[in-house]
Amino acid sequence: MKNQRKITHILAAAVFSAFAMASASSAIAADAATPVAAVKASNLSLLSRDNTVLVLVDHQVGLFTGVRDIPVADLKHNVVALAKAAKLMGIPVVMTATMPDGMWGPTIPELTAVLPDVPVISRTVINAWDDPKVREAIKKTGRKQILIAGVSLEVCAAFPALSATAAGYDARVVLDASGTFNEAKRVAGLQRLTVAGVPVTDYASAGVELLRDNADPKAHDVYTALDIPFATLVWQVTNAVSRQK
After folding, report:
1. pLDDT surpasses 80 at 78
2. Is 156 a catalytic residue?
3. H or E stretch including 221?
4. What pTM was estimated for this model as a whole?
5. Tell me: the pLDDT tens digits for 6-39?
6. What digits encode the pLDDT tens for the residues 96-110?
7. Among 46, 100, 140, 197, which residue is least crowded by beta carbons within 10 Å?
8. DSSP code of residue 171
């Protein structure tokens, strides 16, 4: 009889333990699902002109000399065009560089020329998000959507995008306004961003996403700033045809 009661107690303890473990597993799964849902919501949200800040990381002369995944001329064109469009639409820009007076040189002059009022925040830490001055500049804008471009893609753009996402921001990386030094680095950067659920966009798509409406009074100037090659070609063809009529 005593043995039966002992077995009953053991079975009851085992059942209780299994139930507790199942409950804990469910709680863990629920907690794990929360950031996933947040990431999905982020991916489905379009960029808002009133809630976006553009962060440009390490578009420096020295780093540009090593870029191999995109023609340097195209990279310059794209990041400068994006900066111009952002300025036209009143989107704040934060610019930062790693030791611009030292190892990687100054920010490319084409970029500082279109953003003369935007200071370049000098830092030594590799991840721009780890610099208090950069974080404070972003926080000061009061905006939660961060459009990030950087050289290199897998470090200077990806690291702050991952950290900002972990901090609760909606970060996106602009692929063709970023660059890196070989194909392996490009693939590694894209894979890491994809796994983390950080959306990747291109400079022109980001620009028109922020514009939203072709009837906007600023639309013509924004498209001019973006200087999208195929759009320019279409305009030239249309203009040539209209002159022949």
Report:
1. yes
2. yes
3. helix 219-226
4. 0.81
5. 444 433 444 334 334 343 333 333 333 445 455 5
6. 999 999 989 999 999
7. 46
8. E
Is the backbone peptide bond immediately before 25 cis, with ω within 30 degrees of 0? no
Residues 6+ apart with CB under 8 A from 56: 79, 83, 93, 94, 95, 96, 111, 149, 150, 177
- In whole angstroms, how far apart are CA 6 and each of 14, 15, 16, 20, 210? 12, 14, 15, 21, 70
Show the DSSP H helices in 45-157 as ranges.
61-64, 72-88, 109-114, 132-141
Question: Which of these is catalytic: 75, 85, 156, 204?
Answer: 156
Helices (H), 89-217: 109-114, 132-141, 158-166, 183-196, 203-211
Amino acid identity of residue 52, one-letter, is: T
Long-range contacts of 97-103 (CB under 8 A, 24+ apart): 97/58, 97/59, 97/60, 97/121, 97/122, 97/123, 98/58, 98/60, 98/122, 98/123, 98/124, 98/126, 98/156, 99/123, 99/124, 100/60, 103/62
65's tokens: 């000399």
User: Where are any strands of DSSP class E within 7-150?
Assistant: 52-57, 93-98, 120-123, 145-150
If you count them, how many residues does the chain have?
245
The strand pair at 120-123 and 93-98 is best described as: parallel
Hey, what are 213's tokens? 């409406």
Q: Which residue is associated with the tokens 């507790």?
A: 20
- Percent above pLDDT 70 for the chain: 77
